Amino acid sequence: MAMTRINIDEPRWDQSTYIGRARHFFTTTNPANLFCSASELEWARTTVTKYRNGEVVDLPEDVLWRAKHVYDSAFHPDTGEKMMLIGRMSAQVPMNMTITGCMLSFYKTTPAVVFWQWINQSFNAVVNYTNRSGDSPITVKQLGTSYVLATGGALITALGLNSLVKSMPPLVGRLVPFTAVAAANCVNIPMMRMKEIQEGVPLTDSAGQKLGVSSSTAAKEGISAVCLSRIMMASPGMVLPPLLMNSLEKKGVLRRMPWIGAPLQVLLCGICLTFATPACCALFPQKAAISVDRLEPEIQAKIRAMENPPTVVYYNKGL
User: Which residues fall within 8 angstroms of residue 305, CB to CB, at 6 or more apart?
Assistant: First the structure.
């Protein structure tokens, strides 16, 4: 029996609901995809390519979606090139749990703060480069500027706060890395997407048809939403472990077993990030809506001059 043709270029689950978006991102960020063999990746690429070209692919629907999810986890959506392993979305949890756990464990000395904040921003730069858009590519100069400013922002925040909190309770010191990461995100993401802020993000109608206009206001809203979701994504893994470690320190556990600190924090970060990464990616719809009334006056005028002008328009928020 012929399988009903499905659109594999759209997510499998309804993206207008939070649950649908969360299921999509749980699949996208699944670390198990990192263990796919070269032959499995090639099978997924061949299957998806054939299906997109209209060829008959005799597979059950679940197997076809499996091929699509494996393909998405390893190949760039615009160029089709195989992505660097540590830059893939499926590497987010294992990489971030290691880096975050170490940032939380080694936060007291200046060399340790400098090293781990630098490692974190270097990893962010690799992820941003690997997942760069084919439509609005990041230049090497833009990537380098963003990397330097984000690393500088993180270091200034971390080292500055470390010097301020020396006389405060130990828990306050343990939360400094989170503040530094939040500050870096607020620098890094707008810098990486400066072109959108300057030139605007393309607007579409509800059917996805481009309206031929771009809005800086929409771009700024989208970037603000991404900054918020990234900070919230980091929150559980950078706030809950310090609370637990502070409690263990008070009970004398860390004095008796000092070696347990770093492994325990890496493990706790991993548990938190496994759920926080997809849950926070799903906070805002990828296809974001904005009322025409809230756009720049000149953009409003262009849209209202169209035949059957929409009152709400849509844009790609980014991740």
Answer: none
269 close to 97: Cβ distance less than 8 angstroms: yes
Instruction: Express as a percent the part of the chain with pLDDT over 70.
Output: 97
Residues in a beta bridge with 132:
none
CA distance 132 to 113: 28
Backbone CA torsion sign across 230, 236, 242, 246: positive
Nearest CA to 72 among 37, 39, 25, 13? 25
Residues 6+ away with beta carbon under 8 Å from 246: 170, 171, 174
Per-residue pLDDT, 1: 40
Contact 316, 133 (CB under 8 A): no
Cβ pair 66, 57 in contact under 8 A? no
How sure is the predictor about 135, in pLDDT bands with cuts at 50, 70 and 90? low
Hey, which bits of the chain come out as E strands? Answer: 201-204, 210-215, 287-291, 312-316
Please give the biggest Cα pair distance in the chain: 74
Which amino acid is it at 289? Answer: A
Contacts of 217 (CB under 8 A, 6+ apart): 290, 294, 295, 296, 299
Contact 282, 15 (CB under 8 A): no
d(CA 115, CA 52): 45
Cα 59 to chain center, whole Å? 32
pLDDT confidence tier of residue 188, bands split at 50, 70 and 90: confident
